[in-house]
Amino acid sequence: MSVDEGREYLYRFSFVTVVEGRLQDRASSIPPTQHLLHLDVDLYAPTRFGLDLAVDRLIDGGIVVVDDTAPRRARGSSAPWASSPTSTETVS
Question: What is the mean pLDDT of the chain?
Fold first, then answer.
């Protein structure tokens, strides 16, 4: 699904903000309070940045979804949470 297709699909939900571009450059355009943060990134740096961003912006009980992180395709992306006490996946 392209970003435009995603926007078209989600347009009726006024509480949804679709942000396209390099996460590190676009963080200021993300609303300060999040209930759900969906990260569609494939590399370590933007994944780590997005997780750090989520810590500051998620409400209690909020959810982070990280997409496209299959270790065989994007090996470095799962490393940011590999050392988390709640992680069940180990990255070698």
Answer: 76
